[in-house]
Amino acid sequence: MDVAKDAPHGAADRAKFREMKEGTAQDWAIIGGEYMAFAKGLPDRVLDHLRLLDGDFGGFPVDRLEHSLQTATRAHRDGRDEQYVVMALLHDIGDTLGSYNHPEVAASIIKPFVSEEVHWICQNHGHFQGYYYFHFLGMDQNARDQFRDHPYFGACAEFCEKYDQAAFDPDYQSEPLEFFEPMVRRIMTRPLNSLYAKAAEAV
Ligand SMILES: [Fe+2]
Ligand SMILES: [Fe+2]
Questions:
Q1: Mean pLDDT within 30-49
Q2: Enclosing domain of residue 163
Q3: pTM of the predicted model, to two decimals?
Q4: Where does the HD domain start and stop, copy by copy (predicted)?
Q5: Residues 6+ apart with CB under 8 A from 100
């Protein structure tokens, strides 16, 4: 009997442990190889998820994908670097799964690949964007003031003023998603800051 042939598809390429504490170096060599292949697909998964915002208007003048493209296009045309432009593109990607905390979802996705400042802008843009509409919803327009003494206060206020709050114009000629795809792939190739960065370098 040919055991390998009769084994379930792919079983030879799987770790043998039933509890992680039984794991061996061989198990982790298998998992490590799979992990890197999976991690390389991250840009595709992120871009696929961003496309979920297509046609999602939520009452706004443009849908959430166009808002994302327009925010990124405005940042790019204003001379921002790739990290910043990718953050601008993805800043609202959390709208689908993080309906009550969308800035944190986007910030977590980009965190391994961007500077502390760019991450901070993404993570906190909700409070700063609120300056333009919270008062219409019975909320505190100046909610951002809790960060007034933070070194990145000005940078986040600038992101919202120049790009985010400005990106609802149905007549603006935004670049298509394809324009930004190479940037997303370049930025997400290697993590700068991650618990797993050392393992990624080794492969
Ligand atoms: Fe947002
Ligand atoms: Fe936005």
A1: 93
A2: 43-187
A3: 0.90
A4: 64-134
A5: none
